[in-house]
Write a structure and sequence with these properties.
The chain has about 400 residues and is of the alpha+beta class. The chain has a single domain (about 5-395), classed as Glycosyltransferase (Alpha/alpha barrel), CATH 1.50.10. The chain has helices at about 5-15, 35-45, 50-65, 105-115, 120-140, 165, 175-190, 195-200, 210-230, 230-255, 280-285, 290-300, 335-345, 350-365, and strands at about 15-20, 20-25, 35, 75, 150, 205, 255, 260, 260-265, 270, 370, 380. It is globular, with a radius of gyration of 19 Å. The structure holds alpha-D-glucopyranose.
Length: about 400
């Protein structure tokens, strides 16, 4: 398989147009709409072939930004009123009323690195500014400097066992049970009109580690972007916010060398080992010694994350581990990409290379699938799924 060509073909096959907008669907049959963090990934992948397509992915996301700054996690485009899944009746016609991990500044930064098109940055900067301001205010109503999510789907890891406790579910469960519970939560979100502080306080008060790590990295890049477009005060503001979040994460999430997601008003730690424990590598918030211990004790541990095909989304020794369980075990190339970038940050080049090679092997063996069994490498879920293209960015 010629990988760059194969990746490009999947992205091209999944490309859609609506009026002047262009976007990419994650999978033509299973996911026929635009998703927020998927499009941020698409921009990163497309940037390897064509910065102008990467930019269009960003423009189509910003086109549907809400007045309050939120960028919705799904845009239905060609299917404005018709939705394929019951769960996506999220309060509005045309888009969902949730968001997803805030990767957009990262993608814009990558695009800017490639062609130094300041005009492009200028044109998207106001949208970015309002989106991150929304997260910093509406999603941190108590000013604890941790950004909250109001629904597991906002983490991008819909049924991850990190959310079992906040949802009142046991570690062993079926996807149907999980979906039913998330559906109830959507109804509650609708009942509080997606007013984030209210919804979080009453129904789902979770501060998730990857979401906050992604926020830290993105705020640092947004600060750089602000400098480029001549907003030095914004640059200082966003850099300070990144520091505040890192500090709060250490204060409220860190214990025994691991950052844990929290729930409830007392910030109770959710001690379930998922790939999320490696997300702090991506945000650069561990000391080199902490990073080394984390990698050696967990990533390279055969009882936890060192499966025949790394990296499972849930540790083998968790009661919730299920190699066929969507976000409860299978490998996703997106999470491998975050771990790869994190390992690079700390100079773990050999382990990073192993993860890249294993990701390539999975695609060569099983194709562009949504996720993969970490024990057998078998492909699972959606087909012609775009995230496989992220292997091209494991550089
Ligand atoms: C699934 C994933 C989510 C992704 C979406 C579209 O819901 O859990 O992360 O954005 O599919 O690919």
């Amino acid at each position: 398989m010629n990988l760059p060509i194969a990746c490009q073909q999947v992205l091209l096959k999944n490309r859609r147009h609506r009026g002047k907008f262009q976007y990419t669907v994650p999978s033509p049959v299973s996911y026929p709409y635009q998703w927020f963090w998927d499009s941020c990934f698409h921009a990163v992948i497309l940037n390897h072939f064509s910065s102008s397509s990467a930019k269009r992915e960003i423009f189509s996301l910003i086109a549907k930004q809400f007045d309050n700054g939120m960028i919705p996690h799904m845009i239905y485009w060609n299917h404005p009123n018709k939705t394929k899944f019951p769960l996506i009746k999220w309060g509005k016609n045309g888009t969902s009323t949730l968001t997803q991990p805030p990767m957009i500044a990262y993608s814009v930064w990558e695009i800017f690195q490639k062609d130094k098109d300041l005009q492009f940055v200028k044109s998207v900067y106001p949208g970015l500014y309002h989106f991150y301001r929304y997260l910093l205010t509406e999603r941190d109503p108590h000013e604890k400097h941790l950004i909250g999510i109001m629904n597991p789907d906002e983490s991008g890891e819909d049924n991850s066992p990190r959310f079992d406790k906040p949802l009142g579910l046991p570690p062993k469960q079926t996807l149907e049970e999980n979906t039913k519970r998330r559906f109830e939560l959507v109804k509650q979100n609708i009942s509080c009109n997606f007013d984030a502080p209210f919804c979080m306080r009453n129904f789902f008060w979770v501060k998730d580690v990857p979401f906050n790590c992604i926020m830290v990295t993105n705020l640092k890049l947004l600060s750089e972007l602000a400098k480029k477009v001549g907003h030095p005060h914004d640059a200082v503001y966003f850099a300070e916010k990144a520091e505040n979040i890192s500090g709060a994460m250490r204060k409220l999430m860190f214990e025994d060398g691991i950052f844990w997601s929290t729930y409830g008003k007392n910030y109770q730690k959710i001690k379930v080992k998922t790939w999320a424990i490696f997300a702090p590598l991506f945000a650069n918030i561990l000391s080199p010694q902490e990073a080394k211990t984390l990698v050696e004790s967990h990533l390279l541990n055969k009882k936890e994350f060192r499966t025949p095909y790394p990296v499972p989304t849930t540790s083998l020794d968790e009661p919730s581990f299920n190699p066929d369980g969507f976000w409860r075990g299978p490998i996703w190339i997106g999470t491998n990409w975050f771990i790869y970038k994190g390992l690079q940050n700390y100079g773990f080049k050999d382990i990073a290379r192993e993860i890249k090679e294993s990701s390539l092997t999975l695609i060569q063996k099983s194709g562009f699938r949504e996720h993969f069994n970490p024990l057998t490498g078998e492909g699972q879920g959606a087909e012609n799924f775009t995230w496989g293209g992220l292997v091209l960015d494991m550089v």
